[in-house]
């Protein structure tokens, strides 16, 4: 974008001198728009999955540029391809750990969670020593600065969605990463191993922080490693659907809450799961948080954008992922007259809420 022509050479001279000193006039145009409006987008699972499987053939874990020893395919918003980001705050990726493989132990200031897609119940993420077993559709939290490695001792591939607040953390200039291998204990000795020891059995955190728990909980209860089992979420969805308890904008809706505070799943990311009964059409609403969805089952259509923009229909089917930008009107429709549709979603809502910037509007 070029400067508007100014006839006064004194103004040109001023602009030049300010630029030399890393200064800019409020009246000057930005050189490039760093803030394009994000677009809604759908990533068909078929394509994502085939690229992931192909990466399993040609990308060694800890191969090209290392990439902190993870084999993930990132969902990239087409508005900001250079940033390799799903939204301005969150990253959703898909990760593959093949039978016998391990993704080495590390920790970072970015908070992360996994939503399991494929697994036979033997693969696990070790979070600060707890062996968190990953069964399909389980949700596993690795809060910021918790050690985590992923292990697949089974016979079939382990596949899950990763969600990280890494772009928010980047904007805040606090993106720090440490490999377990390079870390030292209190005596200054290197840990030296690629994985951490298993200290606690699966379910330790659920028992420790669930409704029957020791009096002294976590030191900072906003940052809990935790697992939410799909069997419980699914049973609750079915019971509520049966009872006809529905939100007009989201159908049968459940929050994954922090079990100690009852608040958001994590300080920066909130998770939900919703069931749209057969034939359900929700009423449009919009809000200042942006949301990434993953279709757990069923098929339907999400219409994004108001009447003025004509609306953008995203038709989805099982395991597809799609993004709804902040402040865009949206409504969901279950295309089946006989089967429910289930959507898992993540949003940056807790960030907006904590800054006093959360807004919601209903049609
Ligand atoms: C990461 O550390 C993991 O720990 C997964 O499994 C995905 C995407 C971007 C940056 C770091 C993991 C990631 C990631």
- Tell me the CATH superfamily: Jelly Rolls
Q: Record the strand order, biggest sheet.
A: 1-19-16-21-14-13
CATH class: Mainly Beta
From the helix content, strand content and strand pairing, which structural class follows? alpha+beta
Notes on the protein architecture:
16% of the residues lie in helices and 29% in strands. The mean pLDDT is 92. It contains 6 helices and 22 strands. It has a single domain, classed as Jelly Rolls, CATH 2.60.120.10. The two termini are 38 Å apart. The longest helix has 14 residues, at 45-58. With 363 residues, the protein is of the alpha+beta class. Strands 1-19-16-21-14-13 form a 6-stranded antiparallel β-sheet. A 6-stranded antiparallel β-sheet has the order 2-3-10-5-8-12. Strands 7-6-9-4-11 form a 5-stranded antiparallel β-sheet, with no helix packed on it. The chain has helices spanning 9-20, 45-58, 166-171, 204-209, 230-243, 349-354; strands at residues 41-43, 72-74, 91-97, 102-108, 112-118, 124-127, 130-133, 139-142, 148-151, 158-164, 177-179, 226-228, 252-256, 270-276, 285-287, 291-297, 300-304, 312-316, 321-324, 330-334, 341-347, 360-362. It binds 1-hydroxynaphthalene-2-carboxylic acid (1HN). 1-hydroxynaphthalene-2-carboxylic acid (1HN) is lined by residues 68, 70, 72, 91, 93, 95, 103, 108, 112, 148, 162, 164, 166.
């Amino acid at each position: 974008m070029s400067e508007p022509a100014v006839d006064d050479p004194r103004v040109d001279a001023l602009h030049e001198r300010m630029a030399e000193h890393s200064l800019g006039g409020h009246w000057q145009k930005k050189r490039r728009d760093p803030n394009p409006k994000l677009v809604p987008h759908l990533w068909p699972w078929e394509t994502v999955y085939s690229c992931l499987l192909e990466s399993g053939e040609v990308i060694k874990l800890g191969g090209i540029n290392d990439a902190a020893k993870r084999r993930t395919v990132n969902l990239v918003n087409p508005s900001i391809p250079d940033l390799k980001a799903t939204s301005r705050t969150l990253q959703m990726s898909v990760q593959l750990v093949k039978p016998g493989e391990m993704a080495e132990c590390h920790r970072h200031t970015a908070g992360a969670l996994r939503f399991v897609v494929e697994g036979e119940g033997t693969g696990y993420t070790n979070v600060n020593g707890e062996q968190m077993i990953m069964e399909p559709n389980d949700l596993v939290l690795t809060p910021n600065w918790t050690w985590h490695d992923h292990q697949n001792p089974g016979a079939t591939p382990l596949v899950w969605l990763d969600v990280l607040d890494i772009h928010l953390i980047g904007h805040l200039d606090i993106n720090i990463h440490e490999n377990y291998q390079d870390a030292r204990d209190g005596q200054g000795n290197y840990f030296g191993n690629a994985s951490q020891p298993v200290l606690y059995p699966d379910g330790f955190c659920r028992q420790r922080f669930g409704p029957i728990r020791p009096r002294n909980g976590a030191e900072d209860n906003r940052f809990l490693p935790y697992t939410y089992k799909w069997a419980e979420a699914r049973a609750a969805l079915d019971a509520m659907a049966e009872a006809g308890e529905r939100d007009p904008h989201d159908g049968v809706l459940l929050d994954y809450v922090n079990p100690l505070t009852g608040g958001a799943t994590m300080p920066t990311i909130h998770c939900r799961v919703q069931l749209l009964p057969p034939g359900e059409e929700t009423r449009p609403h919009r809000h200042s948080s942006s949301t990434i969805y993953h279709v757990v089952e069923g098929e339907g259509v999400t219409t994004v954008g108001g009447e003025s923009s004509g609306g953008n229909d995203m038709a989805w089917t099982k395991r597809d992922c799609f993004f709804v930008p902040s402040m865009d009107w949206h409504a969901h429709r279950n295309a089946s007259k006989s089967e429910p549709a289930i959507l898992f979603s993540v949003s940056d809502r807790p960030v907006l809420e904590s800054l006093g910037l959360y807004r919601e509007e209903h049609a």
